[in-house]
Amino acid sequence: MTGGLVAKNTISDFFPITTGLKQGCFFPLPWGHDPQASRHCLWYPTLLPNGQRSLQHRTPPRPPTHHPDLISIESVLARASLPSIESAVALHRLRWAGHVIRMSTARLPRQILFNQLESGTRSGGAPKRRFCDQLKATLLRCGIDHANWETPAEDCTEWSLPGNRPHGE
User: Residue 96: inside a domain, yes or no?
Assistant: First the structure.
């Protein structure tokens, strides 16, 4: 292994590191790469409690990473005049709920949407949200009365009005 002395941000010529090295700061060059690319730890002389000197390595702090070219998804969607992903999911959820409402009561999707299980329990803590729970949150977020949403949803033209769409549409 080779190393070099570091003093005042200057690096000396590289030399083999032996166990006889007692003082100074050096950084190892494990594979003989470029010194700036392979510097992964700095070695500092330290004084142990029993009075002996030792070398201790410390990893230098990384400089903060700045991403000036990073573009947020919101700005990309705004430039493309597209709705956000959340509003697109909410819109599809409302469309599906309106479609299910217009089904006959004998159809299985409508029965599943409005009926509860007769037996069994949901897991404790924060159980996974059901479709009807997510639909209620979407209706509240869109400003639609969650108690009487079935009446406007049965009329296909009224349910597709822009006022019944999520914000940002």
Answer: yes
pTM value surpassing 0.70: no
The three-point CA angle 146-84-154 to 5° equals 30
Report yes or no: 12 and 4 within 8 Å, Cβ to Cβ: yes
Strand partners, 5: 26
Residue 93 CA to residue 96 CA, distance in Å, equals: 5
CB 38 within 8 A of CB 56: no
Report the alpha-carbon distance of residue 130 to residue 123 in Å, rounded: 12
Report d(CA 126, CA 62) in Å as an integer. Answer: 39
Q: What is the pLDDT of residues 38-71, one digit of tens each?
A: 444 555 556 667 766 666 656 666 777 777 777 8
Quick one: 14 and 47 in the same domain?
Answer: yes
Residue-range definition of the domain harbouring residue 45: 2-58
